[in-house]
Amino acid sequence: MKFVDEATIRVQAGNGGHGCLSFRREKYVERGGPDGGDGGHGGSVYLVADTGLNTLADFRMSRKFRAQSGEAGAGRNKTGRSGTDLDIHVPCGTVVNDVDTGELICDLAEDGQRQMVAEGGKGGLGNTRFKSSVNRAPRKTTNGTPGEARHLSLELKVLADVGLLGLPNAGKSTLISAMSHARPRIADYPFTTLHPNLGVVRVGSLQSFVMADIPGLIEGASSGAGLGIQFLKHLQRTRLLLHLVDVAPLDESINAADSVRVIATELQNFSADLADKPRWLVINKIDLVPADELEQLRSALLEELNWDGPVFSVSAATGEGTEQLGRSIMQFLERGRDDEKLDEPCEP
Q1: Inter-CA distances, 140 with 24, 125, 131, 132, 262, Å
Q2: Listing from the earlier edge strand, what are the strands of the sheet with 86-91?
Q3: What gap in Å lies between CA 111 and CA 108, rounded to an integer?
Q4: Phi and psi of 297, rounded to 5°?
Q5: What is the total count of domains within the chain?
Q6: What digits encode the pLDDT tens for the residues 224-243?
Q7: Can you give the pTM of this predicted structure?
C-alpha cells in the first residue's frame, strides 16, 4: 500500500547548449573571423516549500520532472537562450534525500524555502572563444555539459503543534473535527484515517494552534506493523502529544490501561526523544459511560497506569470538555514560546 506522506521522484536538469562553429560572412569582407556564439545554460531543478500543500499525493502520479535545456549558440556571436529553471512545490516539512547515495539534501521547513536539487548543465563554447594571435580561424568548439539527474526520496513530516495518537477507532478524527474546521473521514471501524489530517484550532480571536490527526497505531507499529512506522515520523515535529484512550471501545475485551501501554511502548521503541515529549492523557467517549461509573473508571485507569501527568475527560462526539482542553493546550504552547524567547541570546 502506498501512503501519501512518502514519494520518490526523478529529476533531470536541462542540458547545456552546444557552442557554435561559424565564421563571419559578409560582402566585401574577406576571411571574416570566427563568430560562433556560446550555448545557453540548462535550467536547474528546485524544490520549493509551500504552505498551500498538505500531502505528497500529487507525486503518486507525476514522478518525473525535467527542466528546460539550453539552446545552441549561433553565428554573429549569438549566445543560445538558457533553459528555464523548474520549481517543484512541496509541502512545508518535506525532508529530501538522495535515494542512490542516502545523502540528506535538505529539510524544507519554512514557507518559500527554495533548494536546488539538480544543477543545469553549462553551455558549450563557440569557436570565437578559441581565437588567438596564432590561430585566427579556430574550428574548435565545446559541447554543453549534461544536466544533473537525481533520484529523490520525499518524506513529509507534518508541521503541527499538537499530535493525536492512540489505537484505531479511539476517536482522534472525531476530536479534531470537533475542535477545528478539519473534516477527516470518520466511521465506526478501525483504520478509517489513512493519512494525517491537519486542523487549526482557534481558542481566541488571535490564538490558535495546529493539530494533527495521525492514523491509529497498533502493537508493533515501530517495526512496521499495521500502518507502520511511516506515521510515527509525523509526531517528531509536534510539541505536545495527546494520547486518546477509549473508555467505551467496540471490543469490550480491550483494556484501557493496556491500550495506553501499547502506544507508549511503540513510542519508546521508535525514538527515545519522541517518548520524552510532553504527553497528556485524554479520556474520550465519556458520553457513552454513565456519570456514576465514569469517575470510578477514571480513578482506576490512573491508578493502574500510575499516571502523574495532565488528564482530561472529553466527548469528541458531543464536544463536552473540548473547549477546556483547547484552552489548556494554548496556555501550554504559549508558555513554551515564552521560555524559548528567554533562552535566546541577547544581541550585543
Answers
A1: 15, 9, 9, 12, 71
A2: 86-91, 45-50, 114-118
A3: 8
A4: -60, -45
A5: 2
A6: 444 445 566 667 778 899 99
A7: 0.64
